[in-house]
Every structure is written in structure tokens, then in C-alpha cells.
């Protein structure tokens, strides 16, 4: 070791629960210490991890990472990947798709960010999802049939999620889809190099194999009246998505033939009709949809010798379709993407922005469109723009900065709304359907709704809406009056379920004759010294012992980087999944926030030997250690050294 290395001080490698100057008393309710003892003893408190609380679909992320790390063992004869798959799909039936395209708000919320870097949650989901497809895993058959029939309108992520959760509850489900194939925005909005169609088809088929009936090519409100559905079905779920794009709010946009929406552009491409563009393309947006449009335009390229029928607007509006042979002679398209926000503050995922830049997309931030400039034939020949500054969400033009950019196609990717033709009774006046917190349609009994048609957001949000709506429908069918959802609305860890699996479920409770009882620690009818706050509380990094965790680099998925000269015609998938060994390591990087991960710190450091391991025969996830309260003096050492924040000190005797 050279002198420079020897003198270097480590950075970020230490953690001190108590800092210099922490000698003043805490709030008086904490001031019960008497020298080295107190009246508080360990209580095991489960709270929701922030990764899960940040996941709109409600994934039990901590749970399936515990399976990957080898802590939560599968049943004999089952491999850990299948065990993890079952846990994942209790919330979200699309692990392979979402492991690829979800922007992973769970990773932003991960407490491991306070140590060095988040856990690669998406990468683990990607690996397990692909493994399940390759192994041909199916969902377990529904239990007893309920005799109830549910109509699901829309075969996108919200509708398919609702169908999945309802069918698993034993309800008959009939799914109506206007388009010829299911998938919604996963198929018609996201290009195949991001969601491979064999992956999407495999995960959809697994849902349909549960016994979901599909009526494709049927539009409710035109082919089937809503009144007919109300007469035939016990409940109706609306997951129709937002497949109508919003135009630019500038002069010259309306009725200009070569001004199109981002969703229309992507739908034409994903349906195989759009195979090239003509001239320069300007995409106005800044979100993920705009990046997809620009990246697709670079891939399909510019048709060098275009006939009138080859103009992209004619294809997008369904008047024609590109012939493969005619479109073969093409070159790289010139594509510009503009955003009101600075590039670094665009809402699109950072990785997607970087990819688009590398692939040759000219991205301009802090500019706003002012006017579509038309030629004598009424087609757009340029877009007039100016620099702008953002006042919150409102752009303010900078005087004297106007400029024009010549173009042959302008694509607006600034927002979407629903196609409410024939469904005017459900339209809230803005192209959406209103919903209450239980995803019921106000004033319309039997009707429930979810996904982008409520509020455009992430695919995982739509999937979560399907799960929540299915539960609301279940309560509605059972006649249960329910007007609230948990504060933390996810698929929660269930200790009793884990104890049932381990064969140590509590015994039935029989009230004692002659009054109540005091001191139940020896009884088998209660789960002692345990409190579940998961539905109400999310554990933060301040409540963890971060000093336990060593700096361990994240296993990052390989990313195929395509240059501007290679992008034309390149539709290969860009993400390379992790190996099993890498996934196991990522599982071990999880800090198991709010749940014991069996590190033995409390056992090792207890000065009174009051804390010990629970005997194997009585052990389950969350019940790994126990406390002998006749030995405990309330010194708080176990609480101080618990890495996961699972041990809280509670008043006792």
C-alpha cells in the first residue's frame, strides 16, 4: 500500500447512531431510563418498506427479495424462483414486462440509497419473470366458483389485472376489447424492442388460461350497449385507457394533416402499418411517450422517394399502410424532440433520454411551440418555437428568442384522453371517468374503473388499480359496506399466513371461565410481543441501523448501447437480464426494512442473554427471535443494533 492510499480516509463507510453532543435528554416520555435499565422491553413491529410503499401495484418487494436471498425458503420440491414468482404475482401478474419497462419508483424509495445505491429491484423482477416464462409456469386454478359474472371493458394493464384478480377469486370474467389483440398500451403504445411480444403474449396467456373469456373486436357503447352489460353482469370494470392524443394548443395545429398525436404514431408502428417517415420529424413532449416516438422514428428511418400514400400521416390516420418493399430504400431520419422543461428535468426516464441522444435524436430543452407554419397546400412546413422559462408548471416565453424549424411531420406527445364516443354518460367532461377512492364510478352502482382513464400515469399504477378495484368489487358482491382503503395500500406481509405455512398457527381462543386472564406469554392462542403497523406506517432510514451494511456495488443489468449510425432498422432488445448468481447477491443487498432478516445482532449483543433464537420447530418469517422478559432489563441494546428497525421498545413489566 502506498503512502497516499494509507493516508486516505474512507468516505461514507461509518454510521453513528449517536453523534457528538447527544448528551441532552430526549422527550420526557422517553426519559424512563434509570442507569442501564428501563421499563421498556423489545416488541417486534412490522412496518411497510418504502420500496413497496412506492410501488403503485403494491408488490411485496421485501418478501420476494427475502426469497431470492435464501431467507424465506420454498416448500420442499419447489425452487426459489417459483416461490418468488408466486409472491410477485400476488400483486402484479406481469413481472417479465414490468421488470423491463417500469421506471421503478420502488428503487427511488429504497432505503439502501442512504448506504450507497438502491437494490436492483427491477432487475430481480425481470429475471424471475423470464424464468417463469421459460419454465412454462401457470397460475394456480381458482377455487370454488362464486356464480358471479363480471364484465371487464378494456384489455390493457388495468383490465387484465382486474380480470386476473377477479378470476382468482372464483368470479366468471368476460373481457371486452375493441382492438384485435390484448395488451393496451403495453402492445400499442410501447415498441417491441422494449416489451418483446413473446414476453407480453406469454404473460397475457397465463391470465386467460385461468378461464377468462375474451370478446375482441367489440366496442362497448357501439357494438354492445352499456344497458345490456348492466342486465347481464353483476359488476362492470372500466379499464379503457387513454388512446386519444392531445394536440398542441397553438395556432395552425387543428386539421393540419401532418400534425399527429404520439399515441397515434406509436399505434400505427406497433400495428405494423408505419414503416418509415418522410422528411424531418419534430416531436413535442418530454415524457416517455415522446422518447418512444423519437426513438421509433430513428429506427424506421426516412423513406427517400416517397409517394403521397407513403406520407406517415396517411398511415397513422388509417388511410393506407406502408409496403415493406416500397419502404426498403430509406435512410436515417432527422428527428428533433422539444421539451418545455430543461433536458435534465424532463419527466422521461434518464436512461431512455440518454439512449435517445446516443441514437441521434436532437433533444432541445426549455423551448415551447408557438405556431404551426403551413405551406400553400395546407400542410405543416415548419414549427415556430421560442425559448421559455418554467413558472411551476406554466411556461413563460422569453421575448426575442423566436425561431422556426422546418419539418415534414409534427408529433404531439403532450398528453392523452379517453375515446368516449358512445360512453358520454361516463365522461367527466375532460375525456376521463371519475372514480372515488375505492375506484367506484360515483352515482353508477355496479360500475368500477381504473387505469389511465382515471388519471394517466404508469403501467404499474393501472395494474394496481386493477387489484384494488377487484377487491372493491368483491366487497360489493358480498354486500359489504366499505368506504376506506388502508393508508398504505399494498399487498401486505401476513404473519399469520407465514405461521400457517410453518405449521405453528395460533390455537383457537376460548375465554376463561370466571373472568379474563393476565400474563398470556405461555398461551398459544396469541402472537405475543408482535405488532403489525404495515397498513399505516412506512419505515424510514432513520429507524434502521445503517452501520450494519457494508458498501456492496449494485449488480447492474447490461444495456445494449446503439449508436446513431447503427440505429436504423435495429429493433433488438436493449436490456440483458442478470444471472441467477447476480440476482441472489441483489437479494442479499436488501436491508429488509421493517422486518427481521435473521442477522442475530440482537442475540449476540444482548448483555443479559434475554434474547435468543426461537426454536426451529416454532420459527417462521418474522418469528426468528424471542425475549425472556424475566431477564430483560430494557437496556435498548437490541433496538440499537437491529439493522432493519424491526425491534421497538415497548412498555412492559
Q: Using the alpha-carbon principal axes, give the shape.
A: globular
How many structural domains are formed by the residues?
A: 4
CATH superfamily of the largest domain: FAD/NAD(P)-binding domain
CATH architecture of the largest domain: 3-Layer(bba) Sandwich
- Give the CATH level 1 class of the largest domain: Alpha Beta
Q: Got a strand count?
A: 25
How many helix segments?
20
Please indicate the percent range of residues in DSSP E strands (runs of 2 or more): 15-25%
Description of the molecule:
With 653 residues, the protein is an alpha/beta fold. The chain has four domains: 30-47 and 496-509 and 522-537 and 594-651, Alpha-Beta Plaits, CATH 3.30.70; 50-137 and 551-589, Fumarate Reductase Iron-sulfur Protein, Chain B, domain 2 (Orthogonal Bundle); 149-243 and 418-477, FAD/NAD(P)-binding domain; 245-415, FAD/NAD(P)-binding domain (3-Layer(bba) Sandwich), CATH 3.50.50. 26% of the residues lie in helices and 16% in strands. The chain is built from 20 helices and 25 strands. The strands form eight sheets. Strands 4-3-2-5-19 form a five-stranded parallel beta sheet, sandwiched between helices. A five-stranded parallel beta sheet has the order 7-17-8-11-12. A hairpin with a 2-residue loop joins strand 14 (380-391) and strand 15. Helix 7 (121-134) runs antiparallel to helix 18 (580-589). It is globular and about 90 Å long.
Amino acid at each position: 500500500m502506498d503512502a497516499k492510499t494509507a493516508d486516505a480516509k474512507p468516505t461514507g463507510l461509518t454510521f453513528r447512531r449517536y453523534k457528538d453532543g447527544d448528551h441532552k435528554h430526549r422527550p420526557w416520555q422517553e426519559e424512563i431510563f434509570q442507569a442501564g435499565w428501563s421499563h421498556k422491553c423489545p416488541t417486534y413491529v412490522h412496518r411497510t418498506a418504502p420500496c413497496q410503499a412506492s410501488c403503485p401495484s403494491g408488490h411485496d418487494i421485501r418478501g420476494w427479495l427475502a426469497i431470492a436471498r435464501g431467507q424465506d425458503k420454498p416448500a420442499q420440491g419447489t425452487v426459489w424462483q417459483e416461490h418468488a414468482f408466486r409472491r410477485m404475482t400476488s400483486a402484479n401478474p406481469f413481472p417479465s414486462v414490468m421488470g423491463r419497462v417500469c421506471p421503478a419508483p420502488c428503487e427511488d424509495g429504497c432505503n439502501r440509497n442512504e448506504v450507497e445505491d438502491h437494490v436492483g429491484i427491477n432487475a430481480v423482477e425481470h429475471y424471475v419473470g423470464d424464468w417463469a416464462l421459460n419454465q412454462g409456469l401457470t397460475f394456480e386454478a381458482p377455487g370454488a366458483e362464486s356464480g358471479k359474472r363480471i364484465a371487464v371493458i378494456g384489455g390493457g394493464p388495468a383490465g387484465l389485472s382486474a380480470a386476473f384478480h377477479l378470476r382468482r377469486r372464483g368470479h366468471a370474467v368476460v373481457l371486452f376489447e375493441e382492438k384485435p389483440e390484448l395488451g393496451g398500451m403495453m402492445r400499442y403504445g410501447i415498441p417491441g424492442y422494449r416489451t418483446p411480444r413473446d414476453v407480453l403474449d406469454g404473460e397475457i396467456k397465463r391470465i386467460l388460461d385461468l378461464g377468462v373469456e375474451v370478446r375482441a373486436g367489440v366496442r362497448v357503447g357501439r357494438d354492445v350497449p352499456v344497458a345490456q352489460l348492466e342486465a347481464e353482469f353483476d359488476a362492470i370494470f372500466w379499464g379503457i385507457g387513454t388512446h386519444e392524443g392531445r394536440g398542441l394548443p397553438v395556432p395552425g395545429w387543428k386539421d393540419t394533416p401532418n400534425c399527429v398525436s404520439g399515441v397515434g404514431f406509436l399505434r400505427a408502428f406497433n400495428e405494423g402499418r408505419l414503416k418509415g417517415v418522410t422528411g424531418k420529424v419534430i416531436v413535442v413532449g418530454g415524457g416517455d411517450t415522446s422518447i418512444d416516438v423519437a426513438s421509433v422514428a430513428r429506427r424506421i428511418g426516412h423513406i427517400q422517394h416517397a409517394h403521397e400514400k407513403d406520407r406517415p400521416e396517411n398511415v397513422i390516420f388509417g388511410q393506407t399502410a406502408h409496403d415493406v418493399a416500397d419502404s426498403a430504400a430509406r435512410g436515417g431520419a432527422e428527428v428533433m424532440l422539444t421539451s418545455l422543461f430543461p433536458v435534465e428535468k424532463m419527466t422521461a426516464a434518464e436512461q431512455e433520454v440518454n439512449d435517445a441522444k446516443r441514437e441521434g435524436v436532437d433533444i432541445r430543452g426549455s423551448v415551447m411551440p408557438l405556431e404551426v407554419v403551413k405551406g400553400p397546400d395546407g400542410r405543416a412546413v415548419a414549427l415556430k418555437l421560442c425559448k421559455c422559462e418554467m413558472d411551476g408548471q406554466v411556461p413563460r416565453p422569453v421575448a426575442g428568442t423566436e425561431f422556426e424549424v422546418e419539418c415534414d411531420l409534427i408529433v404531439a406527445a403532450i398528453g392523452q384522453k379517453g375515446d368516449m364516443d358512445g360512453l358520454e354518460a361516463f365522461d367527466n367532461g375532460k375525456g376521463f371517468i371519475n372514480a372515488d377512492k375505492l375506484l367506484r364510478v360515483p352515482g353508477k352502482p355496479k360500475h368500477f374503473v381504473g387505469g389511465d382513464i382515471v388519471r394517466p400515469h404508469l403501467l404499474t399504477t393501472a395494474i394496481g388499480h386493477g387489484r384494488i378495484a377487484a377487491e372493491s368489487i368483491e366487497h360489493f358482491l358480498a354486500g359489504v359496506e366499505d368506504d376506506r382503503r388502508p393508508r398504505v395500500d399494498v399487498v401486505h406481509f401476513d404473519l399469520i399466513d407465514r405461521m400457517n405455512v410453518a405449521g405453528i398457527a395460533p390455537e383457537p381462543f376460548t375465554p376463561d371461565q370466571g373472568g379474563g386472564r393476565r400474563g398470556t406469554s405461555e398461551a398459544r392462542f396469541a402472537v405475543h410481543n408482535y405488532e403489525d403497523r404495515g397498513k399505516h406506517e412506512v419505515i424510514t432510514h432513520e429507524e434502521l441501523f445503517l452501520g450494519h451494511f457494508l458498501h456492496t456495488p449494485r449488480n447492474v443489468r447490461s444495456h445494449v448501447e446503439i449508436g446513431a449510425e447503427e440505429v436504423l432498422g435495429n429493433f433488438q432488445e436493449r436490456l440483458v437480464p442478470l444471472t441467477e448468481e447476480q440476482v441472489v447477491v441483489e437479494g442479499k443487498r436488501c436491508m429488509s426494512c421493517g422486518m427481521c432478516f435473521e442477522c442475530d445482532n440482537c442475540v449476540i449483543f444482548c448483555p443479559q442473554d434475554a434474547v435468543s433464537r426461537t426454536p426451529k420447530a416454532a420459527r417462521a418469517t418474522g418469528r426468528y427471535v424471542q425475549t425472556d422478559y424475566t431477564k430483560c432489563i430494557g437496556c435498548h441494546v437490541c433496538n440499537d443494533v437491529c439493522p432493519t428497525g424491526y425491534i421497538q421498545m415497548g412498555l412492559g413489566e
